[in-house]
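Sample entry copied in:
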Amino acid sequence: MRALPVGQEALLIEVDSAEEAGALHTALLRRRAEGTLTVREIVPAARTVLLDGLPDPARWIPELTALEGEPPAPSTCSPVELPVRYDGPDLAAVAAHWGVSEREVVRIHAGTEFTVAFCGFAPGFGYLTGLPARYDVPRRATPRTAVPPGAVALAGPYTGVYPRTSPGGWQLIGATDAVLWDHTRDPAALLSPGTRVRFVPVEGP
């Protein structure tokens, strides 16, 4: 773990994996809720956590780096369930890459509880972890110019759901009608870092 001051009121903590970043993010949120850490924003990424609005950030380095290895507290919130039609155009390619049938891809994916590791790319887009490393899949050699909203996709170790139409190179295995981002909703994002997620197979359309 390495902590780097960023400007006058921010601290960037670097770790070795997404799992470590997620555990650190959870520990920091817990300390903020307990009142032992005063910070404006805590932003996780693939292997970093940024604390913004932290007065005298260098002073916090010894205490925050001591959190390394602290196990995350179990979540008490129920998982968000997303209904999915597993009929994506890349389902067969993912099945071939995994060496299983398309039905087995659905069983494995829907049988996994995911966690939102971090958000990015587009408002409401969460990078979900949970699948074992043997199910990592490569991005498409040629990205699509337009992926529809609600597309459930895989890339590397992550699962994601496109919140709006956008270009994308992830492997599309299904679709959901859930609204991932709604600026009239509070909070606007359905998924946020730390949220547990389950995908529930449904018949289409």
About this structure: The mean pLDDT is 91. The radius of gyration is 18 Å.
